[in-house]
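hey all, quick one before standup. I had two proteins in the batch that finished overnight and I want to keep them in one place so we stop losing track of which output belongs to which input. First protein below, input sequence then structure tokens straight from the run.
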Amino acid sequence: MKKLLFFLIIIFFSFSNCKSAKQAKSKNPTPSKVIIGANTNEDIYTEKTIRTKDINASSGSISPTVSKAYNIVEYAKQFKGVRYKFGGATKSGMDCSGLVFESFRAHDVILPRISRDMAKNGDKIPLNNVGIGDLVFFKTGSRRNDISHVGLVVSSDDNGNIEFIHSTTSAGVIISSITETYWDKTFVEARRIL
């Protein structure tokens, strides 16, 4: 009976992803902890996807953080075209927070599973300062008080062209631009986890 109850609770919280839900407001909110472990995978990157300001001027090298962010993005891209599945986090179906959660988890960074909880982590940054691997958050539900959608920045440039990978109910895992009318109107904030 305890296992069934535990399973039902897990399913309930999984199904609250990418949806707006009323949540009690705490006077002293405490963000969830982000755990970053050692990554044994070889870091890969290309100059095209790394902005000039991410390169160390004195050595000409790319920081390990930027390289890790690139690897997280490349991992997320393998899910492009996967259908939307509420609460999903596999190639058989995925929701927005499942995509972000799995992409970071695969590189030893553990985030909360729900988009509104992810938005309590990392450092809030201005949209014009986002880079590869940063998270963008939106309020897309019928209740506009809670963050209900998250995307992972795959590219940005100094002209404000920002693209992010995410999972939508209509098209599954796709790459969109922040300048598209819908995403521009529902954008709330950007956060840097790494």
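OK second protein, same deal, sequence then tokens:
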Amino acid sequence: MARIKYTSRISTVGDTEPFTTAEEAWLWYARCQIARDDGVRFHLGRGDVARPCEPDDIVREVQRLYRVRVLRRSHLTVLGRFGRQLTPPNPHGGDGQGEAILWDEALDRLTTPLRNKGIVG
């Protein structure tokens, strides 16, 4: 019989600051992912502002919304592209109007689940 492993998890529930918007949460996730790709390791509670989640919690919710067909592949493409650029699409600055619409749709659909989890205030 396999032994059950118990691990403790650091909890900073009382002194965390939720994100203002889903866009802010997504761009934070994108910055964290870029830093990870560069070799940075993250530790809970060591940033300037303690957040109520880990970066992976945000992307897991995006993946869940994709699996249940709330988000489409085109939403993921736009989130990924502009996440890597660390800026939302600007239809007046050369980005397409369609990309801005997809960006807004994706973040609108992401807001409620993130709010329910306490990630967005």
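Flagging for whoever picks this up: Residues 19-43+50-116 form one domain. The CA atoms of residues 14 and 67 lie 32 Å apart.
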